[in-house]
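Sequence in, structure out. Go.
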Amino acid sequence: MAIFSGFVVDPDGDGLDNATFIAGDQMTLCTSDGSFSLADVAMGQCPYKIVHRDYPVARGIIDIDGDSCYLFQMTRRRSPGSAPKSGILDAKREIETALVGMHESVVGVGVTPGRDSIVVYVRGDIRATPDRLDVPDAIGGYPIQIVPATTDARPPVYVGAAPRTRHRPVCGGVSAAHHETPAGTLGAIVYDRETRGPRFLSNNHVFARCSSDVSARASVGDPILQPSSIDGGGSSDVVGTLDRWVPYRVRGKNYVDAAIATPGGAVAVDPRILINGEMVRVAGTRPVSSRTRVKICGRTSGCGWGDVVDWDFSTVMTYPTGERIIYSDQLLITLPVEEGDSGALLLDEDNYAIGLLSGVVTIDGERYAVANKIRNVLELLDVEV
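Output:
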């Protein structure tokens, strides 16, 4: 291990105050003269990034062969007027993995609706012990707004017992899960882009038992039950088989918690979603880039309403396996979802799909839903609504 230090300067050679320097999995802020120092940096090739609101992100790889000091000069300023909007998203996306991965207290990172501050969601009572926070006042020149979070984000996997019914034809918004998973929600019927065949959509942790890139806990062809086993589903309720999933990356960013299953040959499907006892057709998909009213159609909550309050949210999800998986480009919604809603589809007021529920987090005493953006889900699974 080595000490990696240096200076970050502007085009005129003056120290760049408030620059954030990231080397490998370590992050530090430069002082007023642009200097920084990192201890215990691994020897060999080390990727680095420099984040500052007035400059595009600088990145590269440097060889570390012992204690060393380097000079880094920023040469191209960001175009006028771009920093408050696009710059803060660039900065947030570059530092979120380091913040969530390095700081035990940080459970999420986002931006304010006006995109003038980076929001850091911190576990614990920050008002009682502000001196214990290991989060800077600014990153890359952008101010930090601290919001208290009670717990890590976690998947809402049902662990209790409650009756849920059998639905034929199989539709969205009903109880369904891998035969060894207690319960979850079948979010929607989607269609394979190559074969055009129907597929059942839900979370990886519902259909594929938290399968990661280092541990496949499920296999293609595993039975999917509707209703889930805890709702009475058994061998006569196998409605399909696991087709494919997006494995969690144990190291690095993830964008979706998603999996699909292929309906059995004799199983009838209905492409609509069960909402308050009525069958509703999904109108299509829409991106979210502002505060948006949405509803969820889940196995436990039924139909509930909330608002998307952060559409660039990042967090670390703690799974029953003990793994802490980092998620980026998520939606944060004021929606008090319950255990068993995992995999539910989120719809806007016009019934356009906007996300797939994947977790819950308690922030400042209130329960929020975390959802994958629907465009990421469909692209990574190669399916469409």
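Check: Residues 83-102 form the longest helix (20 residues). Helices lie at 83-102, 204-207, 374-381.
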